[in-house]
Design a protein that fits this description.
single chain; about 150 residues; mainly alpha; Ybab, Chain: A; 3-stranded antiparallel sheet; 3 strands; rod-shaped
Length: about 150
């Protein structure tokens, strides 16, 4: 007859110690995942529109949590403003997965790489990943048709 595998030894105190270590390991993992959840909830990412009229900030769920407008708003049509805000919002959201990856790697460590991959994959599927860096906003001297030194 085959006996079951003994993971902790045959001595009752050794079994108790093994179970305590096993439970403590689960508790440590649970604490790291709770910390990860809290850190992801604190994630904020911003992006500025290509013409510099709007800067948006999103949380890790992609919710808009702030929007700021520059003085250029007075020279922007409503349709252009809409396009600029939506473009900045998309760029901010595409940064989420990379930032969550940083937080997950930092919080969970290399031993939980598979978990970090799955978590990041969820955010990449939901928000995509950045294709390329957005163009920098125009310089202030371009507000009035460019520099006088051209």
């Amino acid at each position: 007859m085959t006996r079951g595998m003994n993971l902790f030894g045959s001595d009752p105190s050794e079994v108790e110690r093994g179970l305590d270590e096993w439970v403590a390991g689960f508790e440590r993992k649970a604490a790291r995942y709770q910390e990860l959840q809290h850190r992801v909830e604190e994630v904020r990412l911003s992006a500025t529109s290509s013409n510099g009229v709007a800067t948006v900030t999103v949380d890790a769920n992609g919710n808009l949590v702030d929007i700021r407008f520059s003085d250029r708003i007075v020279q922007t049509t409503p349709d252009e403003l809409r396009a600029q805000v939506l473009g900045a919002l998309k760029r901010a959201k595409t940064q989420i997965a990379a930032r969550v990856r940083e937080v997950a790697d930092d919080t969970l460590g290399p031993e939980a790489r598979d978990s970090a991959d799955r978590i990041t994959g969820y955010y990449e599927q939901k928000f995509g990943a950045p294709d390329e860096p957005p163009p920098p906003p125009p310089r202030d001297d371009e507000d009035y048709g460019g520099s006088i030194y051209r």
